[in-house]
Every structure is written in structure tokens, then in C-alpha cells.
User: Which sequence fits this backbone?
């Protein structure tokens, strides 16, 4: 329970980020993931499993889905008296402004941050999927004596993926030399996981420093600038890691987990990923159903064919319909004879009349929320 | 405020010994049903959906699991400010020794002090081991409309089977004029469902008297209802139409599960206006593997199917290995059918493991095979 | 449980309304009331006590305090599975625009309104304090056959108070002839309580009609316009009623309740007003305390003098300090020797150096949140 | 996950008969304290604040109120997904008759199956009737650091009183070398607080053995701890400094309430980093009337004072009428002191009404007056 010493912050993606389609309706943290989860379940479960019980979730726009999903936080196994999952909103009326960034949100809520009883803070993004024991990160941070410790992940496909991510340059002592945009210049990169551990004091001083220097600086920017002055260290994350800052990254990350071995490494019984239950009943497979290599959520009615796909809650797949290499979000209807391939079908969409929907593995076709085609 | 207008008491002390090894460790109301539920989820969810806030669950037989299961009242949303599910076991009193519940009426009598705390207008008595969806608020409205002292839910059974049930004979207005337990020559086909609404003031008085009566079995069916009829009280029958099942045996439990395989089944657990709530588990969604074949099945989250599943119900965390075949069967939570094994017309109990290539059950068996212990591997 | 037939909507005040001081930090629904409550506790408790368990709360700006206060709604005695207290946000980025009104919020969330299972809706404001059994209102609405039934309250002080309220003109059959602004022209008026009962169908058609006619129309506007076409009726409310659309109305309403008979008419044991507990301990009165005719919340330390005042949670009133005819919000500090009279001191304010703070009964002095004077 | 690293079991079966009429209807842990709390709020809040998720409460004596009180686990935030407060009463087993708890160790032994469900690494044993604030997570850290088999919380008592307690004699490292129950000549002043952390694997084994021992009283103090010492197990004393009170008598209960009147009292219920949680009631804030005089008092919401209150603790919903005087007293929830009545050095029980001009208690009384029944009006 080392992490009792730290409170958590779940941060929101910068306004410079826009994930095609999905992002029009909800923040990335609220994206459906593997059918039953939402992306924000991962940072919240990591914190809860690390024994942290005071968590601030920053929401910028369209807060409804996040607010409803998180509720009182009890389903994240967080004591509702001692602990609290607190939604903090950015009050800046101009939600799309570049000024309305993470530092702006923190400084607007500085009095709340200052009132936290804990000495340390762990800041984790709401738009990345990974498993990490923050106690280990905190212990490493404390014992190394660093000012800031940040998570990074080594990848060998930074050219094609991890768009919109930042990379870190590290010296042999794990010191961070700089943080840069991933420009896709090399395959092997250390991707910044936008996850930081530091003392509350350092955090507050970084917020103030950023505000003084420029009102468009983000936390990542100010840490990059402070690389020379402060002892900023990297901590390597191992295991499954996905960043969901683009539609193709989201699509790839979801289908990648259809490899059951990869999925069961991310979902360990001793490290549960909590989510809000919707109390849907089991899924009904009909005489005519053909389903292979797919994750299927509860409450579905499946008469047709499903291959290499992720099916959300309450989806209906009618007779003769074929769904391949696709992500179907909750309550979508795929009617008789429809063929869907390499597509992402958003919530409540109904595919009735358009019989053929195809994208490519690189550019999946996106079908809008509530659309009837 | 409407809160404590009606308090519900669920009789959940049934041992369910005809369910054999399924109930050696758990009481019958805690038995699994329908891929993700336990039987007691049905009366509890019905209460929640009917706007009842406070529920007492009366248990006695080895019920540590049942007790801690229902104590998590948030599962049914029964954890708002004045709500709660309370486990009521027989207890030591200041002036008496430790007692057991002697009958259904005695179970309520022993908890009069609990009920008094809430001072309800009406008392709803339910059984913890029936599967059905019912709006008790409508039954209460009927009770009030009729100015009844007691209202008993009944359902029509086939006339030729009526002699197996407690039968209510009513007049043209639904008023009960006679109650016959397992009549040789039934006059009606309206069988009591063991669901009663009583006006509490009167029932409290009757229970206090009944407790003192040395000749009473302290049972609603045997003592209280006949006494009310003798006293010429207003008893009304409330007819229920819809799916209802008492799963008393392995065969009937299996059958009730199989009912769900019909997409048009009458119970319809997919109706968003009357959800059945249950324990929330942290698992992956169900995963259907590369070589899997799934036809006519009812499968819940956390299940992993790599083999062939036909006409079966699979509970949370159950696994069907590569080349394994599960046919006309029920796999309870965590049941594992290893690669190449075959399960036919069987009910595999919680966490039981059927080893590689083993074979259990058979297509032509008269009774459903209950597999309550691990099965060793086959040799083929 | 007649109100099972209706879902609830708790509406937000129009953007034309601004309550001096207090309103800068939170919506009116979030104003502290009588120390332990927030204004929104009244509509929510009314709905819960009427058996309603599906409630939509519309929030426009600064949603944090409302979101935290309402949480999962369990403390309002609402079943957390069957029922739901749902926060709905206005997504319009320009929060202060006149276009961003109630109709705008409803039409943005029209799909959610359409999905409600209930046939009727009760709409009640988050900025008024009263007790009303909505079952009675609904039964009256149904049996009269009206298209819309709205609550009104007869007052005899509409000249001085009920600023920003609307008044209704009623015929002998309780038909509403028109809805007008309260211009303070007469003492006796029927004040509109901004509370409406109608079928879901009528509600949706009014939203659409308003959108078609003018995007600045509010629900009250469109109902006024429809007075000729539809059967709109009034239902008279009796008992305590306060509208909190101005600072002086807020001040008056709070101090009015210091008459214990009036207060106990509003707070009936059989009609509890629910709120979120803060788990503060009892209040400590010192040897030197002098307190009369005041409501005092828990967690206070009182060494000084308090008269005719409402004291919020965790307030400290030091030796020799005097608080008269004032409302002190939670966690404020009134230090030694300070005299506060006819004032409203906002949360976390500290009065240390300024020894004399005085307003008048008509214009109470407002001290800002977190101010140190 | 840290969840079930340590499970807490609260022994709450105490009858508390020295608390006289206060405990005829409720068990001692449910007795009121401090204006708005019940005694059991303290161990439960300590658990919540120490990050413990699952708590078993072992009750036996007439405890319908206590059982339903603790079942509302949301009061202490112990209702998150895997959390819960579980009432554990003696129960009928499949193979035995109905049993009672024979001693503190037996109460745990009878619930081994419950504990096994959670498979904890450590077991924390607490008493349900002590008032104190303690971080059990720190005690666990000490237990681990010392590599202990058992850690027992102790507190220093005045040496001359030590012979009234169970005394732990330790070596220089805090290791317990001897345990003496009420020693005539105490060697140390470290009294056991009845708070134990056990490594569960070992304790489970010991309890199973102890159950079979016909000569055992099945008590931690009398049997288990001496056995552990005899076996040369690692037992460590964990010293607690801070407010601690066992309110066994009316006088000590009154005294503990009076302690809170000192604004600098050691218990400090106003510390926001370690709140004590309790039932949430829907009331007005406290109202202090036009002619009221309140000095040195501890008053909670829902109280109404129209008269004079000095040096007293007033619980939720209590009322002091016009011209009434309450001095050096405790008014429990709903106690009403009508106009002109006088209450001095008294403890007025729940919902008791002191009629107009009546007079109870006296300034010079040796013992505190317990007023457990309504008092009729005075004549003056």
C-alpha cells in the first residue's frame, strides 16, 4: 500500500489531438475498448490496484459519458468514504483553444491539488492502454531521488504507428535528455507514456513554471524544458502497450488483442481491469451463427458470421450478415446480408440498406454513431 | 414517502437436497442459473424493479456463501440511503436459547422486531428459489384495490397436474373461498406460488398468536392461510401469467437453462425495462477461438471457446478446449472442458475440470448427468 | 408510486440570470442552503420522495460541485440499478450565450429523452426551494386532461422580491392565459415555479416547436406562446416557497427559515430532504460561546457570538467575534474581534484583519470565496 | 492487488451488561457515543481508513439492530466492488446442529470457511467496543518488518493499574516473552488491547487444532497466545499511543463523552485526515433558539436547543425545551427535555422524554444517573 502516499491524476489528451469519428462524440477515455471496457478503465484500475484511492480525472469536453461511466468510482474498488474519484472540469469556455491544455486545467484546480493529503502524485493518461503497478514506479522514484520519473515504452514500429505520441531520449543512467514529437523517422523509439511520478511540491512548481513561461505549455513541454535543471528519469514499461491517439492506432490495438496470449497478459486475474457493468444478459448464438477469433460482449444476438472482430454489448448481427476484421460498438445493428470488413461501426448505428462496407487494414472505414445506412 | 410501504421477506432457507452435490456447499437460492445468475437474483431484482427498498433474506442451512452473496446489496441497487438487503439467521435472544426456524411463518415471527423497525404497511413474502419476473408493485395495487387482508399469487397449471399443488378455489371476483393442499380432485387449476402480500398489522397479530399455539406447524400454507379462511378474512388470488420455474431437481435445472436457448423464450432476459441484476465480475468478454464452432448457445463474458459448442449454456469463466465438444449441456462458472474432451447432456458444476479426451454424459441418457467432481483424462 | 410513470428533469437557470458573487463559483443548484443542504437537494428529494427514480439533471457551466454533490444519487434514496440520476451537460462551447438555454440543452440530448421508458415528465428548477409531492401533480395532470400543468405560488410581496421570476395569469378554470416577467408592478402575483408536468410526447413536440420558431426561446417562452393552442393549466402550490434568482432573495429565504415553525413545515419527517453527508463531527461550543436563533451545521468551532444567522459546516468563529443576520458558508474563518453583520461570507473565506463587515438587510455584503480580508 | 492482503474480523458479541438498560435491546458495540456515533463506527472507520476492504462482524447476543446497522456497509465506504461488511452469526451446519460461539478463537474458527473465501495473507482481529483511532496498515507494516507470526497491539497503562490487565512482557526488541493475565506483580505496563494481526496460514492451522482440544476455552488470550508462546513463535508487541477507551460502565461511557468537551481532546474527531464515519441522517442542522444559552457543549445536527446547555453532549434529534437546563449530561438520540425540566450529571437514553419541570440527576451524585425510561412532570 505504498501508493497511499500518492494521489492520482488521469489526464486528458491535448486539444491538438483528434481521433477521426469516435472523438466527435466522446473523449478518448470514454472510447469503448474490447467491447466491455472503456479506455479510462485502464489507468483507473492501475491506480486502484496500486492501492491509490484519491484520483482526479480531468475532463475537457463532452463529459457526460465519462461522468456516467465513473459514477461514484465504487466499481473501481475504491472506498467511497476514504477515497474519491473526482471529476475536474476545465472551466475555460473555449474548449478547443490551444490554451485549454492540461496545465491550464491543473492551474484552474490548483487549490484542490494543494489540499490533497498525499505527498506524491502519479499522472497517467486517459488515452493509453497498459498495465503498471504504480507502487513499483513510486518506490523507484523515491529510492532514486529523482525529481520526476516518467514511464516509457520501447517500440520497433514507430514509423507506422504511435502517431501523435512523443518520444524520449535517454542516457545510460536513465536520465531523460529530451522529449520530442514522434516524427516517424526511425523504427526503434522510446515512446513517452505520458505517465509521471513526482512529489506534489514538484508538480505544483512545474505548473507554476509552465504558466509563467507560456500559457500554451503542456506538462510534457515544461518537463522537456526542465530536463537540464531537474533530475528527470525514465522508467521502462514492459508488456502490452497501446496509445490511442489516432483511429488506426485504436483499430490496430483492438485487433492485436485477438491473440488470446497477448490479451491474457494484459488481463491478469491478480490485476483486474474494472469497469461499469451494464447488467446485460449473456449473448445468444443462433443455429446459423459462425463466429471465430473474436471477442464478443454480452447481450448480443448473433445469427450471422463474425471473424477477427470485436463485438460490443447488445449488438445484433442478423442472418447472412458477415463482420470481418471490424470493431462493432454497442447496440449497433448489422442487418441481413450486410458485409462489413475492416470497419469501425459506432454505437447505435444501423446498417440495413448499404450491403457492403469495406475499409482497409491501414484505413478502417468509420461509420458514425446513430447513423442508419 | 413510499419507502417502507412494503417490506419484502425472502424465505431462502431451502436446502434443495434434490439438487444433490450442487447444494452440499451452497443453499438452493445460491445455485447458478442462466449463464451468469444465481436463482436468488430473480426475487431480488424483481424487488428492485418493483420499487421495494428493504429486503430481509431468511437463511438457515449452511449459508455462508448465500449470506455474503446477498449482503452485497449494491448488486441489485438496493444500497441507496434507506435501502438494504438484510440477512436474518435464527439468533440467540436475551431471554431464550438459540433457535431454528420451525416453519415459514415462524421464520417471519422470529423477525418481528426487525420488521417493526421499518413499520411497513404491507409485508411481501417471497421464496428464494423460483425463476420468474414479476412486478410486485402491480400485485400490491391489486391488494389495495381489493381491500384484501392477504393476496396470494397463483398461476394456472394443467388441470391434470393440479393435484400436485396447493390449489386456490376462488369465487367470480378472485376471492379465495377454499385452499386445498394437493387435492385428489382439484376444483381449480390455480396453484399457489408461495408469494403473499399481507397487511402487516393483521399478520403481526396472527403471527404472535400462532407462535403460542403448540399445535401449529408455524407454516403459512398449513396454518396461517387456513386460519385466515376460517376467520372469513378477505383473501384474494392474483393471477400471474409468464415464465415461472421451480428448479427442484438436476433435470429441471438443466431444462430451465435449455429454455434460454430459444431466442424467443418467454423469460426474455434481454428486456432492458426489467433487467435481472447479479454479481459483477472482472473478466474479458467472451472469446471465441480460431477453430471454434458455436451454434445455438447462451454464453456469457469471461468464457473461452476453442472447440465446438452446440445447444448449451456456458457460465462465466468456463473454458472449452481445442477439439472439445459440448452438446446439450450446462457448464457452470469456471468449469473447464479440456482439449478433445466431450460433454453431452450434462451439467458440469463450478470449477470442475474434465480432463483431456475425457467423455461425460451421453446423448440417450434418461437423466441429465451431474458432474460435480473432476474427471480424469480419456485414453483414446 | 404513481410517479413511476414519470421521469424527472432538474433544469438550470437561464443565462440571463446571475446571482451576485455566489454564482461566480457554482450554479445556483449548488448554492449552500441552511448550512447542510444545497439548493438542488430540494427538487431531487421531491422527486425521490414521489417515487421517481430516473432523473436528468442539466448542468451548464462549472459542473464540478454539482457532479460531486450528486455522485451516484444513492444518498437521494434512488435505486442505483433501476434508477439513475444522470448529469447532462450542454455541449455548446459558449456557455454564456443566450442561445445556450434550456431548450438548447434538451434538444442536444433529445435521443436520451426519447429513450426514457416513462410516459410523462416532471420538470423542476434547480434554483427554487419548496416541497411538493409530484404524484399529486401528475394525478391532477392526468385526470384534468390538460396538455401541460404548471405549478404556481401566490405571493403578496412581488414588488420587493421574486426578481427575475415570471408570473402567470390564470382564468377561473385554472387555465394559463399568459406567462410574463415579474416587473414588480403589483404586490399580489402568481409566481411561476418553473415546474411543469406533461407527457413525454408533448415535451418533445414543445422542444421541436421552440427550435423551429427561434433558437433563443426557452421552455417557458414556448409554453407562453402555446397558451392559446394547448390546454395549459396552473396547479397552486401551498407552503414554503423561495426562488433564489437574486442575492437578496437568497439572503431573505435563508433568514426567513430561522423561524423554527416555518422551517419545520418545510422539513417534515415523512418528506426528508436528502443531501450528501460530509462526515463532519458535531459542533464544539466553547465556554465563551453565545449563540441565539441560528442554524449551525456540524464541524464548527464556536467561541464567539452568533445571532440570527446560518452557519455552514466547519466554520470557525473565534473569541470575541460577532456574527449577526449573516450567512457563513462552509469552512469560513471569522477571527478574533471581527464583527460581521448582514453579510454572506463565501466558502473558505478568512476574515482576519478587516474587523467590521456590514451590509444592510436589503443589500447584504458579499465576501468572496477563499478571500482573506 | 492489495485487496485481500488483510481481512479484519470484529468480535462484536459483547453483551455489555454493565451498561445496564442501554444494552437490553442493543449489543454493546451499537451503543451511542460522541453526539452522532456508535461505538462500532470506530473499528469500522479505522478499517476503512487503513485500506482494509473486507470486514467480518461476529455477533451473537440479541443483535438485530447491530446486524442491520453494520450491514449498511456504505456508511464506512466499505461497499466498493470487492468490499463488504459481513455479519457472521453462529449458524447451522450441514453436519452439525446450531452452535454458539464458545470463545473469541471459536468465533473465528466457526468462520474459517468465510475467511477461506478471501484467502487473506493476514488476519486482523478487533474488538467491537473500543473507542480509538488507529492505522492498522502501520501495524501490518510492523508485523511484516518484524517477521512476526502474531503482533499484538499494546498500550502503556499506569503501573499501579497494570494488575487489572493482560500484560505483555517484551524483550528489548519488542518481542513478547511472556503474557500474564492480571498479574499480581506486573513486570511491565504494556496491556493488551485485544487487537491482533496473525499470519493466516499458521493461525488457521492452530485454530483447527484448538477446535479439537476439549480442554481449551477457545479464547485468544487464554489459549491461543499462550500456545504460541509455548511453541516459541515470533510474537511482537506493537505499542499504541493515543486516545483509547473501553466504555464498560455507565460512568465510563459518560466520562468518554465528557472528554470531547475539551476542544483539545486527544481523540480529535475533527481531523479531516482520519474521519469517523457513521449513519447519515436526514435532519435540519442544529437549531439554537432565541433564548438559548449554550456553553461548553458538543452538539450535532438535528438537535434543537431552546433552553440552557452547559458541559453536555447532545445527540441527533435531542431537544432541550424553553427554560430547561441540561448540565454535565449526555442526551442520546431523540431524548427530549421538555420546558423547564432539569437534567444534571445524567445520561438520558434514546427517545426518553423528561416531562415539563421534571428533575433528574444531581450535581453531587456519586454515580451518573442513567435515565432509561420516560420521566413524569415535576410539580413545582
Assistant:
Amino acid at each position: 500500500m505504498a501508493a497511499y502516499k500518492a494521489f492520482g491524476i488521469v489526464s486528458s489528451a491535448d486539444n491538438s489531438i483528434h481521433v477521426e469519428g469516435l472523438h466527435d462524440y466522446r473523449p478518448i477515455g470514454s472510447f469503448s475498448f474490447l467491447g466491455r471496457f472503456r479506455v479510462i478503465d485502464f489507468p483507473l484500475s492501475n491506480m486502484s490496484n496500486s492501492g491509490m484511492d484519491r484520483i482526479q480525472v480531468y475532463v475537457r469536453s463532452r463529459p457526460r459519458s465519462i461522468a456516467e461511466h465513473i459514477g461514484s468510482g465504487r466499481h473501481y474498488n475504491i472506498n467511497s468514504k476514504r477515497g474519491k474519484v473526482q471529476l475536474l472540469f476545465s472551466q475555460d469556455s473555449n474548449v478547443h483553444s490551444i490554451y485549454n491544455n492540461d496545465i491550464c486545467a491543473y492551474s484552474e484546480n490548483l487549490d484542490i491539488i494543494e489540499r490533497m493529503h498525499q505527498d506524491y502524485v502519479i499522472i497517467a493518461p486517459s488515452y493509453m492502454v497498459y498495465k503498471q503497478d504504480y507502487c513499483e514506479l513510486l518506490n523507484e522514484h523515491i529510492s532514486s531521488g529523482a525529481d520526476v520519473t516518467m514511464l516509457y515504452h520501447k517500440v520497433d514500429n514507430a514509423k507506422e504507428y504511435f502517431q501523435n505520441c512523443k518520444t524520449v531520449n535517454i542516457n545510460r543512467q536513465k536520465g531523460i535528455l529530451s522529449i520530442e514529437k514522434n516524427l516517424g523517422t526511425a523504427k526503434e523509439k522510446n515512446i513517452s507514456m505520458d505517465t509521471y511520478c513526482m512529489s506534489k511540491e514538484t508538480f505544483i512548481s512545474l505548473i507554476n513554471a509552465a504558466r509563467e513561461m507560456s500559457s500554451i505549455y503542456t506538462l510534457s513541454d515544461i518537463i522537456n524544458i526542465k530536463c537540464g535543471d531537474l533530475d528527470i528519469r525514465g522508467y521502462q514499461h514492459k508488456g502490452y502497450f497501446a496509445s490511442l491517439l489516432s483511429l488506426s492506432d485504436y483499430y490496430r490495438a483492438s485487433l492485436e488483442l485477438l491473440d488470446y496470449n497477448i490479451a491474457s497478459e494484459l488481463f491478469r486475474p491478480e490485476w483486474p481491469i474494472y469497469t461499469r457493468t451494464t447488467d446485460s444478459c449473456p449473448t445468444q448464438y443462433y443455429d446459423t451463427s459462425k463466429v471465430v477469433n473474436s471477442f464478443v460482449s454480452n447481450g448480443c444476438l448473433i445469427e450471422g458470421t463474425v471473424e477477427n472482430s470485436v463485438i460490443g454489448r447488445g449488438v445484433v448481427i442478423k442472418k447472412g450478415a458477415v463482420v470481418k476484421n471490424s470493431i462493432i460498438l454497442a447496440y449497433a445493428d448489422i442487418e441481413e446480408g450486410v458485409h462489413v470488413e475492416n470497419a469501425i461501426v459506432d454505437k447505435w448505428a444501423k446498417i440495413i440498406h448499404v450491403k457492403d462496407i469495406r475499409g482497409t487494414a491501414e484505413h478502417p472505414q468509420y461509420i458514425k454513431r446513430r447513423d442508419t445506412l | 414517502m413510499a419507502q417502507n410501504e412494503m417490506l419484502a421477506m425472502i424465505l431462502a432457507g431451502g436446502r434443495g437436497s434434490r439438487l444433490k452435490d450442487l447444494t452440499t456447499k451452497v443453499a438452493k437460492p445460491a445455485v447458478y442459473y442462466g449463464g451468469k445468475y444465481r436463482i436468488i437474483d430473480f426475487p431480488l431484482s424483481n424487488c428492485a424493479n418493483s420499487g421495494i427498498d428493504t429486503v430481509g433474506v431468511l437463511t438457515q442451512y449452511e449459508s455462508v456463501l448465500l449470506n455474503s452473496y446477498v449482503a452485497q446489496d449494491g448488486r441489485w441497487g438496493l444500497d441507496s440511503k434507506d435501502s438494504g438487503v438484510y440477512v436474518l439467521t435464527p439468533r440467540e435472544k436475551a431471554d431464550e436459547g438459540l433457535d431454528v426456524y420451525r416453519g415459514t411463518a415462524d421464520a417471519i415471527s422470529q423477525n418481528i422486531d426487525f420488521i417493526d423497525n421499518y413499520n411497513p404497511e404491507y409485508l411481501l413474502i417471497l421464496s428464494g428459489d423460483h425463476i420468474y419476473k414479476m412486478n410486485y408493485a402491480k400485485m400490491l395495487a391489486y391488494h389495495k384495490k381489493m381491500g384484501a387482508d392477504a393476496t396470494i399469487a397463483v398461476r394456472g397449471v394443467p388441470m391434470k397436474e393440479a393435484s400436485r399443488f396447493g390449489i386456490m378455489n376462488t369465487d367470480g371476483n378472485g376471492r379465495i373461498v377454499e385452499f386445498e393442499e394437493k387435492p385428489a380432485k382439484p376444483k381449480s387449476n390455480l396453484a399457489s406460488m408461495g408469494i403473499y402480500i399481507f397487511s402487516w398489522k393483521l399478520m403481526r397479530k396472527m403471527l404472535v398468536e400462532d407462535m403460542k399455539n403448540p399445535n401449529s406447524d408455524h407454516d403459512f400454507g398449513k396454518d396461517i392461510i387456513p386460519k385466515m379462511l376460517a376467520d372469513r378474512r378477505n383473501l384474494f388470488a392474483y393471477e400471474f401469467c409468464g415464465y415461472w420455474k421451480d428448479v427442484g431437481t438436476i433435470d429441471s435445472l438443466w431444462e430451465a437453462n435449455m429454455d434460454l436457448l430459444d431466442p424467443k423464450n418467454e423469460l426474455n432476459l434481454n428486456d432492458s425495462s426489467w433487467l435481472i441484476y447479479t454479481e459483477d465480475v472482472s473478466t474479458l468478454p467472451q472469446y471465441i477461438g480460431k477453430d471454434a464452432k458455436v451454434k445455438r448457445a447462451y454464453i456469457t463474458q469471461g468464457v473461452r471457446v476453442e472447440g465446438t459448442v452446440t445447444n448449451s449454456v456456458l457460465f462465466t469463466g468456463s473454458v472449452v478446449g481445442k477439439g472439445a465438444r459440448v452438446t446439450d449441456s450446462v457448464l457452470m462458472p469456471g468449469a473447464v472442458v479440456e482439449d478433445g474432451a466431450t460433454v453431452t447432456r450434462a451439467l458440469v458444476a463450478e470449477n470442475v475440470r474434465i480432463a483431456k479426451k475425457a467423455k461425460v454424459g451421453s446423448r440417450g441418457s434418461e437423466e441429465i448427468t451431474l458432474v460435480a467432481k473432476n474427471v480424469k483424462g480419456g485414453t483414446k
